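Entry 14. Two folds queued back to back today. First construct below, sequence then structure tokens.
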Amino acid sequence: MTIPRYKHFFKRLDKFSVCAIKADPNWIGVERDVECLGAYHYVVHGRAKVGVPFKEEYFEVKSKDFFSMQHLFPTVMMDIQDDFYMIGFSALHGKEKWDGRLVTEPTVLVQKESHLICFDGNPIVNGKQLERFDYADLSPDRTYEINLNGGALGLFTEVSV
């Protein structure tokens, strides 16, 4: 019998963090509130069940899904169904609240300071091609030209502290 493997990646930035999980099928894990500040996630590939330990309710995520786990805090459990790779946007502190979404339109006008993360592919923002894990701070009252180019971009704005 082979024990399923799991890798966790984490990079702390000035205003947020980026994290990623790679896991083999049949891996099951739990994150506690101390480390579980991943507000939004994008599944690059695979499938998993996500929920709270000892609760019957859970939801399933699959390739290309974008979802939030904020409602599950302080403890989150994952049951990996297939070879799994997920990238996440994480708050720095538990008191922060963020709005997040996938970019789908060809132009984005931001009203407040926001942050863009490339989750997949090679999207182009204002003429600059991005790769997975590239990120950019977006200035208020500025329009950004977006060519998704088959990729996935997450847009994040802090709503409260």
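Second construct, same run, same settings:
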Amino acid sequence: MALVTVSATVPQERVADLLRYAASLHETDTEPGDDGEAGNGRVRWGWGRQAVHEAYLGGTSDRWRPFLDYLANRPDQWVPWKELLEAIDFIPQQGAGMLGAAERRCHQRPPYEKRWNNQVREFRMPAQVADYVKEVAEE
């Protein structure tokens, strides 16, 4: 898929909405080499079985897997950052460092979504991805 750079003028308070929408246009492509399991035969890049397997087992962090497990046990639910930090016993700076390293290993395609909701950072793992995480965790 060819990508282009586009300039657009939008109200300042809607910039994040525009960027999320633009990202969603690209994220719906099937991940190369992935099994593409989804209702329509397509899966968001980074959310297929193989990508989740690699993301879960990647790195050496003692908190990354518990972070993913916590989200997997709450499929399709938006979980606040503070709750996730408490679950993995990290302070915000440690959590940010862990996520930064993990997301780089995942090539910025982690097995979850994130958003800002009323000044609160939230994370959500789709049910199918949660199932993959649980499968890998049992191996």
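Quick look at the second one. The CA atoms of residues 85 and 93 lie 10 Å apart. The domain at 12-138 is CATH 1.10.10.10 (Arc Repressor Mutant, subunit A).
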